[in-house]
Design brief:
The chain is α/β, with parallel strands linked by helices. It is 36% helix and 15% strand.
Length: 206
């Protein structure tokens, strides 16, 4: 199953001022949908029971804003995709996010998959490092994803595995050390203090 970072208004239009064609969401749309309208219909159905806020004024994109961490499960062409809201889009179509919002979104994502998903391998990018414009380094965000996932797994088993996909060009451009990330992962998995099943804070870093 693919995890796709989206926006709090779940805009889908691929254009320079909204969703970039080379973003994960843009690529997912082109690969699995006949067009943006088909994706819009499935998103609308998946989000039907979630509350949203009506945004005022003229906007480039949609006007209904959902909370950070709102998730929608889609199944195009027999492929599962979890869209998770990790960034706001302003009236000009520019996305932005913040680290606390990402952490909250990760917690809510694991809860959503644990209650509405099927137990299967998960694949996700380094959320927030592209068009969401987070200031943290890619290593910092990978660390947070690992901590959050391990903490969530201490509550329940909801996935067979998690693969964090890193673009090859990012490894060179940002000087990412895969050895250091591997050492961090091994340390967290070995020494994390797993919670008991009565602990309510699913997704809180261990």
């Amino acid at each position: 199953a693919l995890i796709v970072g989206s926006n709090t208004t779940f805009d889908t239009r691929i254009a320079n001022e909204l969703i970039a064609a080379n973003s994960v969401q843009g690529i997912f749309t082109k690969r699995y949908y006949a067009g943006e309208s088909q994706l819009d219909q499935e998103l609308s159905a998946a989000l039907m029971d979630y509350p949203s806020t009506e945004l005022s004024g003229r906007r480039t994109g949609k006007t209904n804003r959902y909370a950070y961490g709102t998730c929608a499960r889609l199944n195009p062409k027999d492929r599962t995709g979890y869209f998770v809201a990790i960034a706001d889009i302003n009236e000009h179509g520019t996305a932005s996010s913040h680290f606390e919002g990402l952490k909250d979104s990760l917690s809510r994502l694991w809860v959503f998959i644990g209650t509405r998903g099927t137990k299967e391998p998960l694949v996700m990018p380094i959320l927030g490092t592209g068009f969401s414009r987070l200031s943290q380094t890619r290593e910092e965000i990978v660390h947070e994803i690992i901590r959050s996932f391990i903490a969530a797994c201490s509550e329940r088993t909801f996935a067979d595995s998690l693969t964090i996909a890193i673009a090859p060009q990012d490894v060179a451009k940002h000087g990412i050390s895969l050895d250091c990330l591997g050492a961090f992962l091994a340390h967290e998995c070995r020494y994390a203090s797993f919670a008991n099943n009565t602990r309510p804070a699913v997704g809180t870093p261990a």
